[in-house]
What does this fold into?
Amino acid sequence: MDRTNDSSLSPRIRDLIARQPDGHAMLREFYSDEEVYQVDCQRIWRMGWIFAGHSCEIPKAGDYFTLEVDSDSIILTRDGNGQTRALYNVCRHRGSLICDHSEGHVKKLVCPYHRWTYDLDGRLLHAPGMQEELEKSRLSLRPVHVREAEGLIFVSLASEPPDFEAAHDVLATLAKPQGLAKAKVAKMVDYLVRANWKLVWENNRECYHCNANHPQYIKANFDHYNADDTTPRVREQISAAVSRSEAKWAASGLAVSHKQTGMTTFPDAERNIWYSANRTALVDGFSSESMDGAQVAPLMGDYPDSDVGTLRMRTLPNFWNHSSCDHAVSTRLLPQGPHLTAVRVWWLVEQGAVEGRDYDLAKLMPFWQLTSEQDWEICERQQRGVNSHAYVPGPYSIYKEYNVDAFVRWYLTQLQAEKP
Amino acid sequence: MDRTNDSSLSPRIRDLIARQPDGHAMLREFYSDEEVYQVDCQRIWRMGWIFAGHSCEIPKAGDYFTLEVDSDSIILTRDGNGQTRALYNVCRHRGSLICDHSEGHVKKLVCPYHRWTYDLDGRLLHAPGMQEELEKSRLSLRPVHVREAEGLIFVSLASEPPDFEAAHDVLATLAKPQGLAKAKVAKMVDYLVRANWKLVWENNRECYHCNANHPQYIKANFDHYNADDTTPRVREQISAAVSRSEAKWAASGLAVSHKQTGMTTFPDAERNIWYSANRTALVDGFSSESMDGAQVAPLMGDYPDSDVGTLRMRTLPNFWNHSSCDHAVSTRLLPQGPHLTAVRVWWLVEQGAVEGRDYDLAKLMPFWQLTSEQDWEICERQQRGVNSHAYVPGPYSIYKEYNVDAFVRWYLTQLQAEKP
Amino acid sequence: MDRTNDSSLSPRIRDLIARQPDGHAMLREFYSDEEVYQVDCQRIWRMGWIFAGHSCEIPKAGDYFTLEVDSDSIILTRDGNGQTRALYNVCRHRGSLICDHSEGHVKKLVCPYHRWTYDLDGRLLHAPGMQEELEKSRLSLRPVHVREAEGLIFVSLASEPPDFEAAHDVLATLAKPQGLAKAKVAKMVDYLVRANWKLVWENNRECYHCNANHPQYIKANFDHYNADDTTPRVREQISAAVSRSEAKWAASGLAVSHKQTGMTTFPDAERNIWYSANRTALVDGFSSESMDGAQVAPLMGDYPDSDVGTLRMRTLPNFWNHSSCDHAVSTRLLPQGPHLTAVRVWWLVEQGAVEGRDYDLAKLMPFWQLTSEQDWEICERQQRGVNSHAYVPGPYSIYKEYNVDAFVRWYLTQLQAEKP
It folds into this structure.
């Protein structure tokens, strides 16, 4: 592929892109260089759709949370008409942050510096002390594009964001029965992972490392078996699980859409498909991604019983979610520098569930808390190795790292995409 | 104005200066960029006069304190003739710091590395172990220009500093009755504010933010009332305060020099007036800038009684002082990077005053400690917002931010001034 | 000397080299600049031989320790044939660190990410899950050149390292009787010194600072006396010590090779001699470099009794060692940035010695622990001064800083050496 198309990239970046070997891990600079990081911010993080959080985090007008994308702070709030809004958290007067806390509730958005007051939709209502000729209508908080899909909120910092409809259709169709829009956050944990965001993403896109690192995860799932090591017995197990589910779910529309071992293929770099969702069978005996497979919270959404496998969603560059019958776990990445990624993990349950009565965090959390923290440790170790001058990108396994390879292709395509 | 004069500025900086909109907050880069910070160090901090500290901090020969301007450490000391000296804190041999502590007392300035010994005026006295032909007279500690005005010490790192006489006249005339040269430091507090020094300065140059942020300050002062919101009642109050003072002070020469509400205008960018001082009336019932307005220490200087309003002084780029009849509060800024400012606040009282007997820190400090810390929080929040790509400089209030606007003009003029 | 030869250095670096005054401390940028630091990494740290550690730290096959040179991590291990190996600690698959701990024991080198498994000599043995056509033989861990001299391990990151034989001969000949290859590590202390590695090195190359800073050290040694201040009495003392030793050691081959006061001259910049060793008499009454001069551990190596003076070795850019009859102290520098140096100090004793019975850390350590920590403080203070714009390189003492001057010449020569 001709990788040196975009003349607005610096010669150094174009040279890096040209030197990236096919089917191999990325060159050192892609994971550690300041200029590459700035290009990532411009061409990935400020161009596409970013997962922000959940509608259920801001149920009422004036509820808000903030989102920090590199050095850009964004307010996610609900306006008086019940509409979700995304606004830059930067006063139009002298640039102060407006919301200083990471979440809260306000009636209006009032800048704490000089009390410029904005409506929840961003319109400047009052600017006391300013000259009469101030054109308030030109001083609204700068809006950020925002879209929702069944309780998942996405934003785009681009002036003209890419299409969201196809993503919405895929995500909403599969997510609907999960009831995320009627969920509540049972727990949220924030991590600072000392690794480039792409290392964190790549780690999530293969289960080649699962046997060695995720003793809990592999008990529940078929992802770590691939074409090269799926035994007849495993093949039988997954077939049985799939057939059983299909028979049972025929009426309720919960089709298993990923019927093999291994991870579903994603992304589609050639067609720029940056979103996907699928329903997958769990190992026999697992009703939920919990330590022992038992249900750990009340059924969510429209599920008739616990036998629904797992719903999985992921969107580039920063979101994945595994949802069982009884709880959903969302993970969000945000870049904070070439070697630093802020990660948030949410555990969601049905909105009426009461802690202590209906669920217990000590049972709800460990499966994904352990799995996540195992991954952060892997990523930090990889970053330290990749920083070395001795690092040479190695070949990807065609059996197990097809999704990492697809990500690299997607990423390089994004860097070179024509900008509007 | 043609802002692209100075050919020794990089094209990037000249472009920034050219793009700065009139009457608006400064562009993002002025507050966050490393190259701008380096230009600030060269053209502001190493060119003009910087407030260093107070004569009363080094009363005896050999007393010293150090001043850290970016990465330059400077010793302020008093020599054997009682003269205040400023010397770079860098040994002429291999560059070691000579004074490792931020204050102290020495007989000679002895480098701890190899015992090169300098007199308090900087002359190299001994360099044991060096060859006989060493030209000691060429190896004095490098001097820094130093001037005093009624107990306030200023230094200039420039080889040919700008004129100081006019500044001296203004400051000394107004400061004389305050008796700062016969004061003592009751307390000193150091802060590291995570904001560009210009944000900290600008914050001090308007009281537009006072109503929302400084409940203590606004009780004592008229600064937060401006042409747009001074009610007839407030106008009457200040007139009464001014007239009363004028009548009373006629004999003692304590003229109120700022007779309106709002802050006195400063700086004068066009004539490069970087210093100013004025005496201002306090709100009725306030004898001192204290929490309840009551006097909190013995009268200072030549004051006949407590009814003297406040003396206020400020010099660019790094000093302001509010002095009441009984105490004086100095604030000094020092740059430590594009996003970091070291701030020191001093509380001074009459030199014979004894803590516990004549004053109590719990009464002396809160008014300005609270006000200062409120301001640092504002500045840090503004820095975080200004870092955003979404930040767009907004318009200044012509009623309330005239001094911030004047500062921006002064600053841009300094950047482009012809260098000697 | 024409210092502007090497066209692959940037004009800025070549200009710095050209401006460096002879016989003076180095220019500010050499100690504080990021680009200079990168050049140092390329032309010093990734070109010559670096001291890594001691053979006795990895006595058995599979024992390992890691070495961090700037951002390159290296594994030092012993293979199944008893041979010392140095391998980059970077998996050939996706670049993860393989050994996450700074020391340990393994059977194979197994990457924790995907279990790629390497033999102790670096050969890739297993890469489970990879395609069959994987060329394992091309995916060995990248080797680092490694050489040993009587228990001291050196590595070179260069593709074609400079000659080691001459260094080996000098070090091995003098070190042999010390028995470092049959030693054990009694204690190891790690420091992070906030100073450029060259400041730390230079500090070690003169004893001009000893009188003022090292009260313990100067009791035991003659280094701090030089041509300018060696009194007849001191001259007599060292002559007596040398003669006594020579008479006594005639049979055992422990020749005193440095017979004057002052430090032995090193390096030889003109002939690029980056290694040296010598045996030196101690002050009468000192059997060991301990606080009171008394022996603090059993005799090491082949020493017949305690009267052996001290063996001293040093190799550029990062190693020095002082060995007494009963213990040896090694110091290793590793660069971590323009203003940061990681320093490790080891105390070694005879391998059969038992703590509590044969030696006591409270007696073994203080002499060099105090001396070392005094030096780190000096270096950090010098770095702070050298950072100043007011710093001007001063003249070296021809009596006392001849080795620092020689180091500067060696360093500048290395920067400009033709690269293979």
